[in-house]
Amino acid sequence: MISDAEKTVQRIEQTLLGVIARQGLFLSGSRVIAACSGGADSMALLLFLLRNAERLQITVQAAHVNHGLRGAAADADAAFVAEFCRQHGVLLHTLDAAKAGIPIPPHASENWARELRYTWFDRLAQENDAVIATAHTMSDQAETMLFRMARGTGLHGLTGMAPQRGCYRRPFLCLRRADTESYCAALGQRYVQDETNAEDSYARNRIRHDAVPALEYANPAALQAMSRLSEQLRTLDVWLEGLADTLLQQAAVPGGYDAAKLAAAPEPVVKTALRKLVSPTRDAEEKYLALLYGALLQGSGGVQLTEDTLWRVEKGTLFLQPAAPAMPLPAPAQPFRLGKFCLPGGYTVVFEAVKYENFLNNPTFSKKDLNCCADCDRILSYTVLRTRQPGDFFQPAGRCRKTLKKYYNENKVPQPQRALLPLLAKGSEVVWLWGSGFAEGYTPTVHTQTVLTVRAEKE
Fold first, then answer.
1. According to a count of CB atoms within 10 Å of the terminal CB, is the N or C end of the chain lower?
2. Predicted confidence band at 183 (pLDDT cuts at 50, 70, 90)?
3. Are 56 and 25 a contacting pair, CB within 8 Å?
4. What is the mean pLDDT of residues 344-355?
5. Beta bridge partner(s), residue 165
6. Closest listed residue to residue 122, CA positions, set 195, 60, 3, 35
7. Inter-axis angle of helices 4-23 and 177-186, nearest 10
8. Any idea what the Cα angle at residue 362 is, between residues 357 and 367, rounded to 5°?
9. Which helix (H) or strand (E) holds 334?
């Protein structure tokens, strides 16, 4: 006789297999990397994929991110996932932000952590010719819709998370969070609890703890109802996008789009067309679409989307105003090492180490060079070569500590240069800054064994 646990597993797996087949989420022969935090949702996802890999004809791997925000608890979660993968022979990809030398903001937001994860997942998928499976559930979908609704989203935002987008696959959108916990329990699989999920400091957690239970009190099937609405809106959004594509083709003129032709179309179609024009530059928030739509109806005006992006309506045409030549992007943060670095903006930095006695005997040395020298042993550990970050501070030799922003202001450093100026940092402490040398306390002393020297040049 089949047990209750076996019935639970059978019910959930049959549901998932049906959804995957209907939506064509995994092609035969695919390499699937499951994003795994160690929580109930992601452990259920990894278990399901492993148990059904042969039936789905896929190869399963896993990926785990330690954002460096929760100290020992995060390290324990990483160890838990690693041990599971070791026992089950699963190849595990890991990103440890602290060990990778990635600067962690003092008060890192959910958006910062999400950006870190998905940037890495994108690269992981490309490098391994894989798709990334995430364990977002129907519960996550409802929270996302409510969160976006509260922030003033439009129809497109209310479609929620799509089951398939780019390299991402979300097979669990048909399950509630309680289903993943039941699945783990039925298979005897342990999972970890992220203590921050119980805190109400994040808006999404407050929605989870207060708004969703209130909706379920009004209707026990509220999550299913919101899931259906998400699917219906997604169908409508696809239809509108087709009409918007046609409208943009018909309104295209040299250098832009015929403003009158756009304005004459139904508002939902026009706003969808405007969203397609705006979204490559920034999130197409409803307020920007409303402003741009207003400019179309008025026949003049403009909307500044970013520092370099301005859409204008002028002389009957909607066009993207040419921007000034874009500054190069800053180099990504990287762990400090000796050697030569050629960085964006024409900056070249050379770090070398010399014995203290050789340094003293150098006939070209003078006191003014001291700010370009430091005790090497004090610099090497946990130091990152990067550009400015929010919260950075700097204490020039012999002077007071101040925020890097204030230091730049006082020294009249031009705004365009600030994003590219190289620096060495330990966390938020800047220990060496282009044009200013090493911070207070790093000067070589009689106890120094090796001296770090810096040569900095700009094209």
1. N
2. very high
3. no
4. 86
5. 168
6. 35
7. 130
8. 100
9. strand 334-335
Does the global pTM surpass 0.70?
no
Q: What is the DSSP string of 21-71?
A: HHHT-S-TT-EEEEE--SSHHHHHHHHHHHHTHHHHT-EEEEEEEE-SSSH
**Domains of the chain listed by start with CATH number:** 4-229 (3.40.50.620), 259-321 (no CATH), 334-458 (3.50.40.10)
Report yes or no: 443 and 370 within 8 Å, Cβ to Cβ: yes
| Greatest distance between any 2 Cα atoms in the chain | 90
Q: Which residue has the higher pLDDT, 360 or 286?
A: 286
Q: How far is CA 376 from CA 11, 33, 337, 380, in A?
A: 62, 41, 11, 6
Which of 54, 205, 207 is CA-nearest to residue 215? 207
**pLDDT of 318 strictly over 50:** yes
Whole-angstrom CA distances from 190 to 99, 140, 333 are 27, 21, 36
CB atoms within 10 A of CB 200: 10
pLDDT tens, position by position, 244-275:
889 988 999 888 899 999 999 999 999 999 88
The one-letter code for the residue type at 440 is E
| pLDDT of amino acid 196 | 66
Q: Using one digit for the tens of pLDDT, what is the confidence trace for 110-143? A: 788 888 898 899 989 988 999 999 999 999 999 9
- Reported as a pLDDT band with limits 50, 70 and 90, residue 198 is low
The pairing of strands 59-66 and 31-35 is parallel
206 and 146 Cβ atoms separated by less than 8 Å:
no
What whole-number percentage of the chain has pLDDT above 70?
93
Measured distance CA(182)–CA(195) in Å, rounded = 20
How many Å apart are CA 262 and CA 259, to the nearest integer? 5
Question: What is the DSSP code string of 234-297?
Answer: HHHHHHHHHHHHHHHHHHEETTEEEHHHHHHS-HHHHHHHHHHHHTTTS---HHHHHHHHHHHH
Higher pLDDT, 379 or 351: 351
Token pair listed for 158:
């209310």
> Residues with Cβ < 8 Å from 52, sequence gap 6 or more?
13, 16, 17
d(CA 385, CA 362): 27
Contact (Cβ atoms closer than 8 angstroms) between residue 234 and residue 252: no
Phi/psi region, residue 143 (left: phi>0; alpha: psi -120 to 50; beta: rest), is alpha
Alpha carbons 317 and 253: distance in angstroms, whole number: 8
Please state the rounded mean pLDDT for residues 390-414.
84
Q: For residues 413 and 229, what is the distance between their CA atoms, to the nearest angstrom?
A: 52
284, pLDDT greater than 70: no
Question: How far is CA 202 from each of CA 113, 196, 351, 412, rounded to the nearest angstrom?
Answer: 13, 9, 42, 38
